[in-house]
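Researcher: Please predict.
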Amino acid sequence: DRMLDMGFLPAIRRILSMLPAKRQTLLFSATMSSDIEKLARTTMKDPKLIEVGPRGQTAPQV
């Protein structure tokens, strides 16, 4: 998330474009902004979202 905030999206897209089409891609983020969700939808095949708690709440163990 912070990498996108800092303007790294073009570099991330360039790196992703160099990867083989057949691959396993995992994306982890403490926060899932709409930009991250859009990136996942456009660069991953059938992405799945797994949440450990309600959105907008900080986990008590963090």
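Model: The first helix runs from residue 2 to 5.
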